[in-house]
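Re: the 551-residue chain
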Amino acid sequence: FMRVFMYGAAWLTRQAVVVVCGFHCTHPIPSMALVARMAPFMRVFMWTCGIQAAIAGKHLAALGIEGDTICGDPGIWRILTSDTSVEGVENIKWSLITAKADHYISSQKAAIKTLEAEIQGLDASIQAATEKEKAAPTTTQQLTELVHAASVIFGGVPPAQSSMCGKPRMQPRMQRGAYRKSQEAFKAAAAQLFNGEARFAGDFLQVCRDLLIGKQAEEGNYCVQLCQRFKDEAQQLSDGSVGALGGRASEDLMKQRSAAVEAVGKAKKDIAACGQAQDAFTKLEASIREHKGVADKRFDAVQDAEWALEDARWDLADLDESMKEEEAILQEILQKLEETGADVGNAKASTREVLQQEVALKTKVSDTDSALVSVQQKMVAAKTADKVIEQLRSGVSAIAEKMHLLFDKTVLAPVRNLGIHESLELDDYFHKDAGALSSAGMVRDTVDALDAFCKGDAKASFDAVADQIDLSPLCRIGDAAGIKSEITAAVEERVKSVRDSIEEVKSWMNPFKSQESLTPQQIEDFVAQGEPEGLRRIMSVYSSAGFFQYL
């Protein structure tokens, strides 16, 4: 049984690996370690003909299997498996399981609210960071042009350097106020540059000093102060248009947002899985209670029948006593008649006839009493067997539910961690038209560039050495249009293959796989007719297991 189960788990794991290979999607699906996780313990129990036979589950640590958490709490599994006896199954603490599951769902919902609030805050931060980062940093050429624009007031960079930016008694002599006018000219040029498309960056002071100071002495040189004023003006205009860079980069914020979104998705999947477990527990509890109720009702009916049998036996005993008393009275009457000398011949004949009838009646009473004793014994046996049958149904239902939980924990949970879950919509991940992707356009452009190169530069170079070596096979790539079509077709074929693999794996999320024709009402009818609760949920997974044939 376990070997068949592990084969199934390994097959699904291989399918999950196929999903990752060649996966072409717009959103990443997290990877999964190829180690199945299942409960460390499984106890299978059954009852037959009033004799309990508990089959202990084998410890699975040697297989690398671990994990026994349901709804985030290992205590639920312990509650379900701590006592595998009839009384243990009938007295499972369902209210405690429900409380633990409700608490887990509530905590996950609270975590989702916190994460969603974090995502909203990150969205605002990302937008602000993106706005700041979209401006390109200034280049050395742009900084140089700004200095040249301001130096026009001095007649250009060389006169500005020679005059030390308009210092008195320096040659060439500059007009009074040229220094301040150069600041205005710089501001006008910088305002055009810092309009939201550029961010002030680079070593402006070094660029400015190289142009305006050069090899001149810095002591008393007006250009030293002018370069500093230029820098301050440029920084102010840049900060006013695109703001100052600070805090975390948009890329880091996006990574944090992706992690938060993934955490929300995981929490929602955990809530859905816990909800499914709750539904299964509710049905199992109802089934066990129903079986127990049926047994109680049948016990009451058998008890009433036992009392009726007991009353009948008492009535027969009373009748036997009455017959003995009547026989004694008849004998006494005959004796008195004989003592009086009366003719009692006819009376004796009548008395013998009555006594013979009484003997026959006593025999019937005795036979009836024996029959009642036999019926009573059969009723006791039937009562015991009936109780065991209902307990057996409860036990089998419990086994079926635990088998489903084992499959869910060992196979489906890792698949969900991979990103394949019940509500997965593949259209959200795969593009309908792979050829419309920007990456597809890049491939087409590359093919066209290779084709053009082979027909142009490569052909000329190959022709030049054709008498020595034939290099033309290097460019026999075929028709460019055909190559592009083949590439697109190959990608679309792989997309279809991967999607089909994912759909196949996802189909095992349906507990009624291969039974899609059955309606929920039909399944309920089967249970009402005596089928163990949960049997239909494991038929597909365990159909080849020998133990399933018993179930």
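Residues 250-339 form the longest helix (90 residues).
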